[in-house]
């Protein structure tokens, strides 16, 4: 299946990419390609056991990342939208034609809008046709923007961007700005002054503040005289006054005359204490969006929230910064990481017995991991420290430092590929709201650093708390942005965002799959004492100890995707096919549980007996037990530990994975050969023994070959192979310490040469 995924990506995805980007893909072709992809993936079978919504889902959610051609096409449409809204000097000519066509085809209600000021429908409030009267290509642009919630959004914008915005029908202006477009003064400004932008309006309005100007139509000041001469304007003061009124309709966030964050927020600098030599890094808390008008658009925004036009007040306190400071160490801790019963905590430490030392147990609505604990520690430090103090944060977490360093990039990309997105966004807000400088520094963990050790201790103490702390993830509306910046979009990011939307909408849960996942969690808890998360299971069956056929087998089995058992007894099945639901030998439902663990015709009893003999020779602390279906699927999650120190026994865990998975797959293939190829003939005992022995010896031979250093990073460490097969080889006592260069076989398997069947 993995190979077919790559073929689909290369052939269908690659060969249709250019043409779709140039002229789009008709829906009829898209449907045919979707069907062809599905048929190819399932080898032209009539029945597809797992829906496309599941196979297209991410690996961590039980999918296979199969190409979704419809989502890929929508990602291409987003790239076209990005090109149209680029507003760059190298703007494509078709974008200019698009603006002209949008302005040409307007509904009757917009006929009064002066055609000369119809600039861009995404920057202004006038409307264009969104129905079939519009060109299909242009309609695709507006449909894409509407479907993926494109809108103007940002905390604050640079004065350059604000000045470049069109003043007429300004999208962020008050309702009054629309009625002001039809006055005589506005007509003069549009026709004679050719005034179009907010910047031009602000420059005109500023003339009212000159010393020699009088608020009269007969004003003889230098500016008014110049306006009469250059623009043939009979009432300069009226036009100036109209510009003042136009600017008054704009909120401070969009008014170039207002004080903006860029006026007082400067690039962070090192200080004498928090210097570069000591490897302190200043946090950049600037909130202003720079660039061009193209940078004001965000896509995949949250339709449930409204944008705020209130500027946050982040002016630093008066006086010289950096005179008072505090240094805090932060850390996180987690028990049972990657398990359902994981617990995480955070700690901040200033100095011994300091009243502001804190520890917090993470609430259940946050992911329980070491990384989230470290993020919460950083957030605690930013939220609880006196805002008048410069803050220095010491941490041993590269994860936190990376989140703070690249936070703006993550935010621009909508946190599409970032885990813990809500928490990171909240941490960034906590750091940005600090009006005094904040610095971060990496320190080596468990290296005798007093503050770091103190924070680590507090984080671990938090795990034993009875009550979890409240971690406020809510961001003030005027400091919150949703979605991703359109200019930061790539086709890959857009595709991933669309797939995330589809997964949230359609889900990937299947009753049969959920039942098997429950079995796996119960079995792993019974055998190894912990409950793995579902995400951890899906990642584990792709373990490098499994070849592709075994990975596919485990994936198909967990989804109950093989056409066995109750699949045949569906009401729409013909009566003669419904008989296949029953095992012809045992007379019970022939599902995978029966095939792999109880059927007398598949040879499973013999194969598990051989596996038992081999495992017992390993002399592991884990006593042999006949695996159930949950044990088979969960074999990759084995956690056999050394009773003395509690550390995992690498060799035993690896051998368990290999024995269980390979044996189960052999039982399945033997069953398929009996039912499909051999017309119900049962394999003999010696035949099964030979097959199993050869399979395990082939695996041993492969392991030995994979220790060759010529394979580079793909080579397996010799020590791992030696630990895996220790105690299982023929005449092992006579072999050298490093026997990986020699050929050898497994011992303890008595292969009988009888040919009679069984059962």
From TrEMBL:
GO molecular function, a single term: metal ion binding
Keyword Metal-binding: yes
Reactions it catalyzes: Endonucleolytic cleavage to 5'-phosphomonoester
Keyword Hydrolase: yes
SUPFAM superfamilies assigned to the protein according to its UniProt record, in alphabetical order: Ribonuclease H-like
Gene3D superfamilies, per the entry: Ribonuclease H-like superfamily/Ribonuclease H
GO biological process: DNA replication, removal of RNA primer
Domain RNase H type-1: 322-464
Family: Belongs to the RNase H family.
Protein name: ribonuclease H
